[in-house]
Amino acid sequence: MTTLKTDCILQGECAAILDGLPDKSVDVVFADPPYNLQLGGDLLRPNNSRVDGVDDAWDRFADFAEYDAFTTAWLRACHRVLKDTGTLWVIGSYHNIFRVGAQLQDLGFWVLNDVIWRKTNPMPNFRGTRFTNAHETLVWCSKGPDARYTFNYEAMKALNDGLQMRSDWSLPLCTGPERLKNGQGEKVHPTQKPEALLHRVILASSNPGDVILDPFLGSGTTAAVAKRLGRRWIGIERDPDYIAAARERIAAVVPVDDPTLVTTPRKRSEPRIPFGSVVERGLLPPGTVLSDSAGRWSARVRADGTLISADHRGSIHQVGAAVQGAPACNGWTFWHMRAGEDSGRLVPIDLLRQRLRAELAAEGTGTTGQSGGALQ
Ligand SMILES: C[S@@+](CC[C@H](N)C(=O)[O-])C[C@H]1O[C@@H](n2cnc3c(N)ncnc32)[C@H](O)[C@@H]1O
């Protein structure tokens, strides 16, 4: 059986190289294939300077049939090397993404999302003949409708300031110091993707240690981000110059050394702690006055684990929402208590929940947890 070597670039034709990889060995494929752009002739800006479009040989196909045959070959090979729990991302533009999308479905992939990457700094439509083409599409798929797959929902929500992450992502093109340039100041690769895009893709759909495969590695964006986020990676690329640039780039990346910095615990995996158990344990005795962080509203703790304010009574969440006139509230982070020796500092009561969770975790692992005592 072939073993899987990771953290390396494999040079050659992507379908042939994929054929040499073991079955069901990869957790995530991120593919940025040739788009078959079909740009006819030079495109000039109003000042007559030439637009640096993608006219490279690797992006040219004789016709749609040739492009489709190419797409089927690499997609089929990716389907084989993906684990049953794996997912595949393909990025493309209006030139190719509809053809790729149809093939994904024909090959049995199950579309989970189509994500719009909205470019915050797109290239204008110089001729003024169409709308500015300001987005690209990423299709995200599992191996079938019933496949279990990784989606780090909490990490995505945290990345979006506590709001559920949507399928439209506003991110700039890769410019500035991130853009690889050669000694003459020219772009090393015409379609280098922004690392922010890959950061989101990899954080959303993989865990530290997972294997991320990019069959069209180009300048190495996927590998650089995968390495930084503590994932293993494999890149396939045909062009030796791109490979050299990617190798240098990836070598300079320092991985985050602590896995807890690149994982967000799932809510469901954390034990539920009722506020009542904080009261029962004497961590907040009945009568304790809680307030919001600015001291605008206050409420007293009751022996049954509910709160009572001037006008409301109910759970920490209900009273928190009611005093603000809000539809909902997370009482653990809204309500604060006085902590510290001088009792002058307001800290969220969530710290008590975290302490109880840590105790539970320590019981589970047989290590001694800290219990009781004032919160400093
Ligand atoms: C759209 S670019 C990928 C850019 C990459 N995402 C980045 O951020 O730099 C596609 C890459 O695929 C490579 N390529 C095209 N056809 C290939 C094939 N049949 N096998 C292997 N590599 C191929 C090209 O050389 C090019 O670097």
* Major β-sheet profile: 8 strands, mixed
The total of beta strands comes to 14
Q: Mind telling me the CATH class of the largest domain?
A: Alpha Beta
Helix percent reads 25-40%
Give, in order, the helices and strands.
Answer: EHEHEHEEHEHEHEHHEEEEHHEEH
CA-CA gap between termini: 57 Å
Provide the residue-averaged pLDDT.
Answer: 91
CATH homologous superfamily placement of the largest domain: Vaccinia Virus protein VP39
Please tally the helical runs, counting DSSP H or I stretches of 4 or more residues: 11
CATH topology category name of the largest domain: Rossmann fold
Write down the Rg: 26 Å
Indicate the proportion of strand residues.
15-25%
Which compounds are bound in this model?
S-adenosylmethionine
Count up the domains. Answer: 2
Strand arrangement in the largest pleated sheet: 1-8-7-2-3-5-4-6
Q: What structural category characterises the helix and strand content?
A: alpha/beta
